[in-house]
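Item description
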Amino acid sequence: MEITQLNEKDNITADVKLNRVYLQFQELLQELRKRELSEKIAEFINQSIEDLNLSSSAGKELLKFFRKKQAKIIELLEKELKIVPRNYYKNLWTALGISIFGVPLGVALGLTIFDNIAFMAVGIPIGLVIGIAVGTEMDKKAFKEGRQLDLEIKN
């Protein structure tokens, strides 16, 4: 099944953020057209494009709608086919590293070694480094296995 075309909305080029997200969405669709997708995934993508084409929203509302549809498509691709954009895992694991490793490590260090909770912030950069390292390795693995799209999603 072929992926349908996304219609250009009026005054998209006037709004810089909206234009950037629109062009990014177009890039995503171009990359997906190069891949072999299942009928279910192609149908979901076409339905998302149809929703965007029929939308009468404008401005910030349209911007949110584009981002929401793009996020849902990427989530489905990652879940079903393990296909991800560049730096997907690095961006994901940066936040996870801080929350899963950094804060608990900081609390443990602050309470046990330094006997002062003010040292909790010491764990945050440690968690950040761990998260970036794990995410970068996962991105490298996805690239080697051919599961990485040739585009980076920027919000």
Remarks:
- Helices lie at 16-33, 39-54, 59-80, 88-113, 123-144.
- The chain has a mean pLDDT of 90.
